[in-house]
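About this split. The held-out portion is used to measure sequence recovery: a designer receives only the C-alpha cells and must propose an amino acid at every position. Recovery is the fraction of positions where the proposal matches the reference. Here is one held-out target exactly as it appears in the evaluation file.
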C-alpha cells in the first residue's frame, strides 16, 4: 500500500510540473517554499541523492508532455489508484494568486532521507558566506576619512540621504543637513587649498599696498565705536570667568549655542528688539548658498551669514541685475539674500582657526566677484580699488580672528585680498575684551552695511533700463486673459458655461491690443523720462557753458589787467632807463670836464 501511495504521489507531482504549459510558474511556486526547512533542504543540498528532489523540474530541462486534451488520455488513467487524480480545474496561469501556495506533503521515505541528511546540511550551511554584520570589523576602514584628504572615498551605492541632498541642491532648495560637517570642510582641509585660491586670483593675506588710508581709519573705528550692550547675566563680571571656563574643550555645537550668539549677534533679533535700521538685513545659519556661482570648489555654507533682503531693491533694479528666480547669480547667496557682506565660521579642537579662514575667504571672494561685475557693468570699476567690500570672523572658544576683504584693480584681472584686523582674546584680563566682537558686528551692520547699500543702489540705477522681453509679454497676456476669463465667468449664466470654457484659454485681439497699448504707454513713459533726463543734461550743459564763459571773461579781465600792469611796468622801466642814461651822460661830461682841467693844470706846470 505504501508503494502504491508513493507511486501515486510521484505521478501526481510529475503531472503537475511536466504537463503544465508554463513550467516556469511552477518554478516560482517551488521557490515560494523557501520558508520551510524541508524546502530549504531540498533546494540547497546538492549532495542528497533523493529521487523526489532531483526530479524537480526546471525551465531549462523540463520535458513538456502532451496534455490530456491533445493525447486524449490522462497520464494517470492506467494507474491502479485512481483517487489520486486531481478534481480541481487548472487555474489560469496569468491570474495572480491572492494566497500563498500550499506546500505539498512529502512521503515518509523523503522525510526520512531529509532527517538522515541533517549532518550534511549543517556542514553545508556552515560553509555559506557570513552576514554583513560579521564583516563590519573588516570594513571599518571604509568609514575612516583622512582629515587632509581632499576627496573622501565614495561608496559603491549612494545612500538615500546623499541622493536627497543632490536632488535638493540641483533644484535650488536645501535643508540644514544638506551638507554634513565632513563634506562641508572636505575641500578646505587640503593643504594646497590656499595655493589653489591664489591661482584663481584670491589671496588669504594682505596685498603690498593694503587698504586705502580712508578705509584703514574706518576699520579702526569699527573697533572703537561704542555700542549699547544688552543685559547678559553670563557675560557680566561676576559670571564670565566661570562661563568661559566651561567652554574649554567642548564641542563645536556647544560653542555655537552658548558663545557665538554673544560674539556675532543676530541682526534680525536686534531689529525685533528695537533697532529698526536693521530691518533691511537678513541672516542665515549654516544655509547653503544655492544661488551663488562658486569660482572653485563647492558652494559656500557658512555657519553665519549677513546680507541684504531682496525687497531693498526695486523690481526695475532686480531686472537690471538679471536676477531670475530659478537661475544662479553673482549677486545672490539665496533667493531672499542679496550681496552677503559678512560671514562667520565657528571651529573647535585641533582643526583650529586656520581651517575656518579658508571657507571665509572663499565666501567673501564670491561676494566681491559680484560687486566687481556690477561696477564693471557701470564703468566704475576704479572706484573699488583698495576699498573695503566685506568682513569675516573666525572664532573658537578662546580667540576671534577678524578680517576685512578688498580688491585691487591695478592688474589685468582684479585680485582679491583679506587683511587681518586686531585679534580678540576673550579670556584676557578677566574677559576685558569679551564684548569687542559684539560691538564690531553691530558697527559693521550700522556704519558699513547701510552706506554700502546706498552705494550699490546708486550704481544699479546707472545701469541701462531693461528691455521688455517676450517672456514679459507672454506673462502680461496670460494675466489679462485670466482676468478677462474670470470677469466673463461672473457675468454669464451657467447655461453658457460649456461654450465659455472653450474660449477661456484663448487671447482675443482686443486683449492683445490692450497689451500693446500698455507696452506703448510704458515706452512713451520711458521716452518722457529720457526727454526729461536730456532736458536736465541740457540745462546742466548750459549752466556749465555759462560758468565757462564767466570763467573765460574773468580770465580775460585778469589777463587785461596783467597786460596793463605789465605795460605800466614797462613804461616805468623805460623811464628809469632814460634817467639812468641821462645820469650816465652827465657823469661822463663831468668826468671829461675834470680830465680837461687836469690836463690844463699839468700843462701849466
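Reference sequence for scoring:
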Amino acid at each position: 500500500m505504501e508503494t502504491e501511495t508513493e507511486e501515486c504521489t510521484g505521478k501526481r507531482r510529475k503531472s503537475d510540473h511536466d504537463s503544465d504549459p508554463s513550467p516556469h510558474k511552477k518554478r516560482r511556486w517551488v521557490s515560494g517554499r523557501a520558508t520551510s526547512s524541508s524546502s530549504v533542504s531540498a533546494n540547497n543540498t546538492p549532495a542528497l541523492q533523493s529521487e523526489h528532489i532531483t526530479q524537480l523540474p526546471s525551465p531549462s530541462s523540463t520535458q513538456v508532455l502532451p496534455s490530456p486534451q491533445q493525447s486524449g488520455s490522462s497520464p494517470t488513467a492506467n494507474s491502479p489508484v485512481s483517487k489520486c487524480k486531481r478534481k480541481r480545474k487548472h487555474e489560469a496561469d496569468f491570474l495572480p494568486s491572492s494566497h500563498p501556495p500550499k506546500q505539498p506533503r512529502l512521503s515518509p521515505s523523503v522525510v526520512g532521507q531529509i532527517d538522515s541528511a541533517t549532518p550534511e546540511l549543517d556542514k553545508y550551511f556552515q560553509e555559506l558566506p557570513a552576514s554583513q554584520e560579521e564583516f563590519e570589523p573588516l570594513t571599518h576602514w571604509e568609514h575612516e576619512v583622512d582629515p587632509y584628504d581632499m576627496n573622501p572615498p565614495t561608496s559603491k551605492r549612494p545612500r538615500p540621504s546623499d541622493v536627497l541632498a543632490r536632488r535638493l541642491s540641483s533644484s535650488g532648495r536645501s535643508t540644514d543637513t544638506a551638507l554634513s560637517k565632513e563634506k562641508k570642510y572636505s575641500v578646505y582641509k587640503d593643504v594646497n587649498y590656499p595655493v589653489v585660491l591664489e591661482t584663481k586670483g584670491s589671496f588669504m593675506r594682505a596685498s603690498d599696498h593694503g587698504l586705502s588710508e580712508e578705509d584703514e581709519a574706518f576699520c579702526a573705528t569699527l573697533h572703537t565705536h561704542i555700542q549699547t550692550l544688552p543685559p547678559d547675566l553670563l557675560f557680566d563680571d561676576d559670571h564670565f570667568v566661570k562661563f568661559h571656563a566651561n567652554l574649554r574643550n567642548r564641542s563645536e555645537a556647544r560653542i555655537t549655542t552658548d558663545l557665538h550668539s554673544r560674539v556675532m549677534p543676530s541682526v534680525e533679533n536686534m531689529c525685533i528688539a528695537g533697532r529698526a535700521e536693521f530691518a533691511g538685513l537678513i541672516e542665515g545659519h549654516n544655509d547653503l548658498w544655492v544661488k551663488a556661482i562658486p569660482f572653485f570648489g563647492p558652494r559656500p555654507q557658512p555657519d553665519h551669514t549677513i546680507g541684504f533682503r531682496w525687497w531693498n531693491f526695486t523690481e526695475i533694479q532686480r531686472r537690471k541685475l538679471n536676477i531670475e528666480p530659478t537661475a544662479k547669480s553673482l549677486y545672490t547667496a539665496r533667493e531672499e539674500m542679496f550681496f552677503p557682506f559678512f560671514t562667520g565660521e565657528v571651529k573647535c579642537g585641533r582643526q583650529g582657526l586656520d581651517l575656518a579662514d579658508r571657507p571665509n575667504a572663499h565666501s567673501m571672494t564670491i561676494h566681491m566677484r559680484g560687486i566687481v561685475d556690477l561696477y564693471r557693468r557701470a564703468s566704475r570699476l576704479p572706484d573699488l580699488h583698495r576699498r573695503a567690500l566685506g568682513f569675516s570672523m573666525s572664532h573658537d572658544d578662546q580667540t576671534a580672528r577678524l578680517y576685512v576683504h578688498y580688491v585691487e584693480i591695478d592688474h589685468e584681472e582684479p585680485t582679491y585680498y583679506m587683511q587681518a584686523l586686531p585679534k580678540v582674546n576673550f579670556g584676557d584680563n578677566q574677559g576685558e575684551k569679551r564684548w569687542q566682537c559684539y560691538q564690531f558686528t553691530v558697527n559693521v551692520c550700522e556704519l558699513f552695511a547701510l552706506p554700502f547699500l546706498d552705494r550699490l543702489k546708486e550704481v544699479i540705477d546707472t545701469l541701462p533700463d531693461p528691455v521688455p522681453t517676450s517672456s514679459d509679454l507672454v506673462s502680461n497676456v496670460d494675466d489679462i486673459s485670466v482676468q478677462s476669463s474670470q470677469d466673463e465667468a461672473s457675468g454669464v449664466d451657467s447655461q453658457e458655461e460649456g461654450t465659455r470654457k472653450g474660449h477661456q484659454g484663448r487671447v482675443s485681439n482686443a486683449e492683445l491690443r490692450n497689451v500693446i497699448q500698455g507696452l506703448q504707454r510704458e515706452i512713451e513713459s520711458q521716452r518722457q523720462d529720457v526727454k526729461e533726463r536730456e532736458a536736465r543734461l541740457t540745462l546742466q550743459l548750459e549752466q556749465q557753458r555759462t560758468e565757462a564763459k564767466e570763467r573765460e571773461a574773468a580770465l580775460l579781465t585778469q589777463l587785461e589787467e596783467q597786460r596793463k600792469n605789465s605795460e605800466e611796468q614797462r613804461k616805468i622801466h623805460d623811464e628809469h632807463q632814460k634817467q639812468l642814461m641821462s645820469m650816465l651822460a652827465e657823469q661822463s661830461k663831468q668826468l671829461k670836464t675834470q680830465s680837461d682841467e687836469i690836463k690844463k693844470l699839468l700843462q701849466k706846470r
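Annotator remark: The longest helix spans residues 509-604.
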